[in-house]
Amino acid sequence: MMERMEGSSGLSTACPRRCSCDPAQSVQCYRATEIPREIPFTTRRLYISHSKIKQLQFTDFRRMSVLEELVLLCSGTESIENNTFKALSTLKTLELCKNQLKQIPTFLPSGLEILKLADNSINTLHASDFAGLMKLKVLDIRNNLIATLPPSAFSYLCNLQSLILDGNKMESVSAPFKLPRLKYLSMANNKLNSLPTNFFASFKNLQFLSLSGNFLTKVPLDLPKSLLSLKLEKNQLKMVRLKDVKHLENLSEFFLSENQLTSIDGAQLLPNLTTLELSKNQLHTMPFRLPGRLQKLDCSNNLIQRVTAQDFQGLQDLKHLFLDNNAIYYQDIIRLPDTLARLDLKGNGIEDVGEQELKDLKQLQVLNLRNNKISALDRKVFEYLPRLRHLYLDGNPWNCTCDLLRTRRVLMAKGTDVWGGQCATPAENRGESWMSSRKILQQCEDSASSMERGKEDRKKMNPNEASSVGVIMDDDYYDYEFD
Questions:
Q1: Is the separation of the CB atoms in 61 and 67 below 8 Å?
Q2: Which domains does the chain have, with CATH numbers?
Q3: Which of 150, 254, 294, 440 has the fewest Cβ atoms within 10 angstroms?
Q4: What is the pTM of this model?
Q5: Cα angle at 10 between 9 and 16, to 5 degrees?
Q6: What would the pLDDT profile of 290-319 be if each residue is shown by its tens digit?
């Protein structure tokens, strides 16, 4: 049964079955077997999803003379008749994602600005596919079966700003592409092992480039000077050479995780770099001479054994430092930057945490010490950390003496959220948490003064504290803000 709605002219128009229509000329339909015939001719936005519409044809849309946005998702569409969209002169957005299309629809309207065809079975691109699309700004054809990119493929797209080709089967690309206004290019998760020397020649305004998840062994040559963000994770890079990056003076983010890097050269010449990610490489030492504006440095999951004050020389803004899963012993960490808000030392060989190394970290809000060899914590360490909000302690062999309860009182008074703290020794307390165990509290009430402190602690501990403290989480959770 069809619903009624008021059209813009005041006349009552029909809303098809399994659809909802609103006065703003939007129609949403689900579980359809064809494009509904009764869609109001005033419709500007049409959304159809989770349907079974194998073919689209010209007659489906011929009455929709003011349609601006057409979205057809997850509907099993396999083919589109020639000229199906040609008459839609007002259409600006066309999304046909998660269907079974094998080719780009033909004769698309010239006013189109956004075309999204992700998650289909398109295997070939031709220049004629995009003929006349002079206004197209966004083209998303990720997760298809495209193996090659002929140089003429995008020759009509003189105003294209965003091109997404992730998750195809590209082993090579031809050059050059003439896309002078392109700002965003992503070709992640393909099979590229190199790019032509002049591939980036026309990309004078490119700001974001992702080539992650390919088979690159070198940083591509002649990268655009305009780049702000460069993603090269999950490749096979063995080195980053000075000459490959020294001209990238505008680069703010550089992502190099999951490669085979043993060293990185040239980062110090990137004056605007704020993020450098080097996780899961083969670094034995910290990168040499880091750029002064760096705010985030991720050197986790490497082979680093020693960290010195010289490694952080000149860093005035570093806030996030990841050194987890290396081979660091805490006595090998000397003088960390006092700007840090987040310090991750998980999965090293740390046996002791001293006040000398942490006392200047007045801005620290997150400290992750998971999976080390720490058995005791001096409460004085935390008196130097006025802003500490999250502390991760699980996976350490805690020796649950009454000294730890003094540390516990300091942490509770600060309002710090603590994860972990399970006892390894003494044997009678194994498995207990020194942050929440009433049993350990009772054991330490061996004098009148400690009895009073124990009573006070039990008052402070709410009934749910044992379940809210000491919970081991699969992923580290961070929630903090900067002034």
A1: yes
A2: 319-483 (3.80.10.10)
A3: 150
A4: 0.87
A5: 90
A6: 999 999 999 999 999 999 888 998 899 999
